[in-house]
Task: structure prediction
Amino acid sequence: RINKDDSRIGQVLEFMKDKIIYLIASEHLKGFANGFANQINENAKAISDFRIISELNHHLMEGLANPGYFKEKAGFIFLKSKLYSTRIQERFDLTKEVVEKQSIKTIDLELKGPDKLCQVLEGFVISGYSTYYLSKYYGVDPIKIPWVDYFKEKLSR
Result:
């Protein structure tokens, strides 16, 4: 069970404040990671992106070196699951080690549902609440999308 009082929501919320968030996922949680990044962008009006293990292991780790101020602003949320293949779980641990060795903050969000679908739904509950509260932290309306509306209006002409 998960509700708005789940401690993971507060931990994720606190971690996301004032950071550029990268969501790290694999296998069955790839689509969720994309959706979570979209929620951060649209609801909280904050920048975020998602990356997939193992693909990120071929280039992103080297790109963390510059610009130097990135390390102060970045935060990596590792979307972990015991349902990932053993090899992917090993890659998660090693990737996190590489990121932390470059002085970038990380946090694990362990999804605990008994099957893949439950984990995706569990993740969306956590991301929905945490991005809603992040929007309140930033003082923005999570419903309004002024730049998207502007874009659509200009495009429709």
Helices lie at 7-16, 30-43, 60-63, 70-73, 86-101, 116-138, 146-155. The longest strand covers residues 74-81. The CA atoms of residues 57 and 95 lie 7 Å apart. The mean pLDDT is 95.
